Amino acid sequence: MSTPSGPTRRVAWTASTSRTKRECPHLIEVQGLTKYYGERAAVQDVTFSVPSGQVLGFLGPNGAGKSTTMRILTGYIGASSGSASVAGFDVFSESQEVRRRIGYLPETAPLYNEMRVAGFLTLMCKLRGVPPSRRRARVDDAIDACGLGDRSEEVIGRLSRGLRQRVGLAQAIVHQPDALILDEPTAGLDPGQTRETRDLIKQLGRDRTVVLSSHILSEVEATCERVQRGPPGRRRRAGQAGAAHRHRPQARGGAGRAR
């Protein structure tokens, strides 16, 4: 196991030509993932896998390292030790290939509030390398999938919190990724918006793998097929989401812990 002074596995930023998805038993594979910040372990020895076409809930209390794990998977930060792959591509050494195959929605949706919905999604297509000839169709598909057909020309900052979350989901799928990684996707929503977002995630999960994090048991049970339970540092097998109530995690507070 890594020590706090061990080297960080950094993400490689070298551009590469897109390649086809490799044959592998699981779309997402994580083995012994560990991340230190100085002397503190934000994530320690996390292991799980997700097959294609499954909605997995990453359940744990605030401070359990869920967000840190997702940032590692999406290539935003490196790891101290362990391995992670998406569609057979290594998250650290083949980051560009991984990024082509994932859509990411952090807890705070990355939106440009002064832009209109369709224009923003077109920009996301451009940034993610979607060929110009396909951008209009990709934007239209994402708008339809997220129920934004009558909002495509509205300014994002004028939308409700629930609709802005839909725009966040649309930007995560506009390049047609194999997997969605969603960090606390219903945080801050009212009950009606939460139900709508849950239903939308279930619909999106019909065509792709979804990993979402939550510290709320009912959220995981209502949305996910399977659950990966915390806290980090213990290897656990994913189980059925409906059975998660038998293993409710105990809250572990403390300032300075990663989410």
Short description:
The protein has 259 residues and is an alpha/beta fold.
Name the descriptors:
259 residues, alpha/beta, Rossmann fold, six-stranded mixed sheet, four-stranded antiparallel sheet, 7 helices, 10 strands, 21% strand, disordered C terminus
Give the terminus-to-terminus CA distance.
Answer: 22 Å
The CATH architecture classification of the domain at 52-64 and 103-246 is 3-Layer(aba) Sandwich
Percent helix range? 25-40%
Q: What is the residue-averaged pLDDT?
A: 83
Structural class of the helices, strands and pairings? alpha/beta
Low-confidence stretches: 11-17, 231-237, 243-259
Number of helical regions: 7
What's the overall geometry? globular
Q: At the first level of CATH, what is the class of the domain at 52-64 and 103-246?
A: Alpha Beta
What is the ordering of alpha helices and beta strands?
A: EEEHEEHEHHHEHEHEE
Largest sheet: 6 strands, mixed
Could you give the count of β-strands?
Answer: 10
Give Rg in angstroms.
Answer: 18 Å
Proportion in β-strands: 15-25%
Question: Order of strands across the widest beta sheet?
Answer: 6-7-8-3-9-10
CATH H level of the domain at 52-64 and 103-246: which superfamily? P-loop containing nucleotide triphosphate hydrolases
Q: Which fold name is given in CATH as the topology of the domain at 52-64 and 103-246?
A: Rossmann fold
